[in-house]
Write a structure and sequence with these properties.
This protein is mainly alpha-helical. The chain is built from two helices and no strands.
């Protein structure tokens, strides 16, 4: 009779703690996935920063997006919107 309440208390405690452990493990896996995504984005942004520090890359962006040209170069805009 004395042991039964302790067994029930131990079982309930074990069940509650195992549920908490499972919840925390799933949250850990979710956060690790988020961390991996953020690290991938960070790597991509660092690469973009390196590119934006390159004058040749910036000039190519300006030529593509702003239709700027080099000295002596002529840009023709065709009716379908593509550059040639």
């Amino acid at each position: 009779m004395v042991v039964t309440p302790f067994m029930i208390w131990g079982g309930v405690t074990y069940y509650a703690q195992s549920k908490q452990l499972t919840d925390k493990e799933s949250k850990l896996h979710e956060l690790q996935a988020q961390k991996a995504a953020v690290q991938a984005e960070k790597t991509q942004l660092e690469q973009k920063v390196k590119q934006l520090n390159d004058n040749e890359y910036i000039s190519e962006l300006a030529r593509q997006n702003l239709f700027l040209s080099k000295k002596g170069e002529v840009i023709f805009i065709t009716p379908d919107g593509t550059k040639k």
